[in-house]
Amino acid sequence: MHLPKAVQKLNEAFQRLPGIGPKSAARLTFYLLNVPQVFLDEFASAVTGLKKHTKTCSVCFNIDETDPCSICCDSARDQSTICIVEHPLDVVAIEKSGGFRGLYHVLGGVVNPLENIGPDQLHIYDLLPRLESATISEIILATNPTMEGEATAMYITRIIKNSQPKAGRPRAENIKITRIGRGLPTGADLQYADDLTLKRSLEGRREY
Amino acid sequence: MHLPKAVQKLNEAFQRLPGIGPKSAARLTFYLLNVPQVFLDEFASAVTGLKKHTKTCSVCFNIDETDPCSICCDSARDQSTICIVEHPLDVVAIEKSGGFRGLYHVLGGVVNPLENIGPDQLHIYDLLPRLESATISEIILATNPTMEGEATAMYITRIIKNSQPKAGRPRAENIKITRIGRGLPTGADLQYADDLTLKRSLEGRREY
């Protein structure tokens, strides 16, 4: 079947996005054929402008309009705690939860040997200079509770513990390293929970 | 949580697409933050160029680069059969199946009183002039087997039958009107099929 080139082109562009297969791509493309050109132009300018009007923070590697980002610049935030996350979207999720008022460090992914992603492709070593500041007292490892996330958390713990302290500043030992709590998510059903979640939930029990 | 304006803008644009909610939109937007600008520019030009480089065929209302479209212009196709479908994507699906070599008529949707879509919003009446050509001998109603699709098929049948024949050309009675076959889809499991599908499948049985 011969499709117009313009349709094919957009179809292919959509298919390069994560989670969009050939059928969804076609649905989106044919939907856009029925919207006003004004919306198409707005959409296109949002796409081209995306990276031009955003910056990666050189301190925490979060995405923002300024560098350093608004979180790193905000002196009202707790400067003693750094929460380590995989992606900028994790920062959005944690901020939305309202459960954290410290600083972040965005790794940009996880160590994943199968996909050839080693620590050097991530912002793991960029964390070390930040720890030399006298104010940092806690590191929260908030990588995902997946195999890769756990491995990355373990790797970071090791390099923090092994990091060479600057003269007269044996910091690493004084920094508390914590991992986000594991257990049943709110609204979950005990009988449908998997074994590992239940096990971690029991291990992570707290006094009531 | 304060997000960069460029991110918010693209997020909102994605959320206006069908089947993309706030979470998928955010995932797509943050994915695009990590692709080269070249791809963003290509994507944007595909979006703006979509409608500029496509035309709606004035005969069958399919989408193509030319008007009339390549199917309407193709004299090698069976000029005596018109297959009526809801959307241009249905044309793509039928063409891919290879089961039809006639002409199409794209309605642009179905009659749907709940969404305020009446026959006048569709290309139903545009079908009548096409039937006056002496070559048309069959109309295949290939609207979806949904409530709205069935109602639209019934409505079209009625207006064809009631259409005023041009002087000396009592065409409507000579045109065979058929509905696409109903039954179990290939690979289906009889025991999981719904009642109506099974009923239609029995009604639509053929000699073996």
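The mean pLDDT of chain B is 90.
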